Amino acid sequence: MTTVLRWRLAPQNRDTHLRIRWIIIASIFLISAVAYLDRVNISIAARAIATSFRLSNVQLGWIFSSFVLGYAASQAPAGRIADAIGPRKVLTAAVIWWAVFSAAITLIPQSATNALLLLIAARFSLGIGEAVVYPASNCIVARWIPTEERGIANGIIFSGVGFGAGVTPPLITAIMIGHGWRSAFWCSAAIGLIMGGIWYFIARDSPAEHPLVGSSERAVIERGIPQDSLSATDRRFSWKEIVTEPNILAVTLSYFAYGYAAYIFFSWFFIYLSEVRQLNLRESSYYSMLPFLAMATGSPLGGWISDRLTRRRGPFQGRCGIAAIGMGFAALFIALGTQVASARVASVVLAAGAGSLYLSQSSFWSFSAGAGKRSAGAVSGFMNMGGQIGGALTASTSPFIANHFGWTWSFLVAAVLCAGGAILWLRAAPEPLLGRKTQVT
Question: What is the model's pLDDT at position 204?
Answer without folding.
Answer: 92
